Amino acid sequence: MMSRRRADRPIVATREMVRRKRRRRAVAVLALVALALAGVVWGTWRYIDEQEFLLDARCEVPVGEDRHTLSPEQAANAALISAMAVDRALPQEAAADALGIALQESDLQMLEATEEQDARELFRRGSPSWSDDDAPAEAAASVKGFYDALESAQDRDEDPWTPELSISEAATALDRPMDPSFYPRHADRGRAFAGPLTGQQPVGMTCHLSRKDAPPADPDGMAHELAELMPGALQVPEDAQAALEARIADEDGESAEDEDADGDAEDAHLDEYGPILIDRAEASDDEADGGPEAGTVVTVTMPGADDEADSDEEAAPTLQRLWTVAHWAVATADVHGTQSVHAGAYQWDRDTGRWARVDEVNDDAVTIGF
Predict the structure, then answer these.
(1) 266/343 same-domain check
(2) Which of 104, 164, 165, 229 is the most exposed place for a label (fewest CB within 10 A)?
(3) Residues 214 and 295 in one domain
(4) How many Cβ atoms sit within 10 Å of the Cβ of residue 19?
(5) Alpha-helical segments (H) within the chain
(6) Of the residues 197, 218, 240, the one at which a domain ends
(7) What is the mean pLDDT of the chain?
(8) Where is there biased composition of kind Acidic residues (predicted)?
(9) How many other C-beta atoms are found inside a 10 Å radius of the C-beta of residue 61?
(10) In whole angstroms, what is the distance from residue 274 CA to residue 68 CA?
(11) 167 domain residue, yes or no
(12) 51 phi and psi angles, rounded to 5 deg
């Protein structure tokens, strides 16, 4: 009888039990609120990332704890200057001086045409007002003219240009139009970008670019510009250069299409210009993102790729050209609509703006995806 009465007694909730229930409810509510907030934050961040509201389009080179940056336009021009130095077999310091001097004289942007200045020049015309000469020579404004003057100054007996000169001394030796004391402020940035852009520093430069506003794919324009910049270093035959020029001149590409139509159907998507191979096998239709050339792959094979190097010293020129082309392709990605660049054991992707190690290693060619 006693046990039955005890079982019938109502359970009385103690204060501690009530507190536990309240804690559980509060934790559950907080968890739901946290999940909701996380979803809102993730969705907001995803939207911001997709719309690229926080994107700072730039190309950068890390040097120690510092990061030197250029805008995409500046980087493309820096790559042009550096590639021409490599093609002329000039030392890295020549490109570094050229970049530092161009930063001072044009901010590495193509100068507007004037009566005295032609368009598409990266150096300022004019005679050095600081010179003691009665009739100082006028400074060269084109990249070709700049390097012509530098090579000429190398051979001088008096005050020659040498790689050991500081940038102010180099500006003096090259009779640049501005006061030599103005140039040193750009020396560090010029040296930083000259390393990777002349192929001396693999994986040394990357670019963070817009994915949403990427220009249409232009593999033909890219191949043509590269063949013009580095005909000697890449050993581009004259007939290949002429064929590229003809294709660029033919806006509709009818000539190239007719040539392909006469060939084997299996190779109809391939265009070969010496060391530059354009593979249009995966080209998409006109409505696809990136235009009709999206999916095209350009392969640039290095001269002597089939020759076995007996030492690292013999392999160095090939690797220098490889990484010159690779960094040039990244630096001009916002000009030609490039999506990826693969060189050595690394691949740069426009989506991430980073070089990542990949399984496939190719030290003989640069593969550029559109």
Answers:
(1) yes
(2) 164
(3) yes
(4) 10
(5) 2-8, 15-51, 72-87, 92-106, 143-154, 167-173, 187-197, 219-229, 238-249, 254-262, 312-331, 333-336
(6) 197
(7) 82
(8) 251-265
(9) 23
(10) 35
(11) yes
(12) -85, -10
Q: Are residues 144 and 283 in the same domain?
A: no
Q: Is residue 5 part of a domain?
A: no
Q: What percentage of the chain carries pLDDT values higher than 90?
A: 57
Position 131 pLDDT exceeds 80: no
The answer to whether position 169 is within a domain reads yes
State the Cα–Cα distance between residues 46 and 32, nearest whole angstrom: 21
The candidate with the shortest Cα–Cα distance to 84, out of 8, 14, 150, 177, is 150
Q: Does residue 54 carry a pLDDT above 50? A: yes
Instruction: Give CA–CA dist 283/156, Å, rounded.
Output: 53
C-alpha to C-alpha distance for 142 and 332, rounded to whole angstroms = 19
Answer whether residue 56 is part of any domain.
Answer: no
CA–centroid distance for 202 within its chain: 12
Q: How many domains are there within the chain?
A: 3
Q: Residue 346 corresponds to which amino acid?
A: Y
* 24 token code pair: 């559980």
What pLDDT is attached to residue 185? Answer: 97
Same domain assignment for residues 304 and 176: no
Is 300 in a helix, a strand, or coil?
A: strand
d(CA 309, CA 290): 39
pLDDT at 342: 98
Residues 344 and 308 in one domain: yes
Angle, CA 39 vertex, CA 35 and CA 40 arms, to 5°: 120
Q: How far apart are CA 105 and CA 125, in angstroms?
A: 9
Q: Quick one: 304 and 361 in the same domain?
A: yes
pLDDT confidence bin for 125, thresholds 50/70/90 = confident
CA atoms within 13 A on the CB side of 214: 24
Residue 145: enclosing H or E segment and its boundaries?
helix 143-154
- Do residue 76 and residue 123 come from a single domain? yes
Q: Angle 28-31-36 (CA atoms, 0-180°, nearest 5)?
A: 130
Structural domain span for residue 19 = 13-51
Q: pLDDT value at position 270?
A: 85
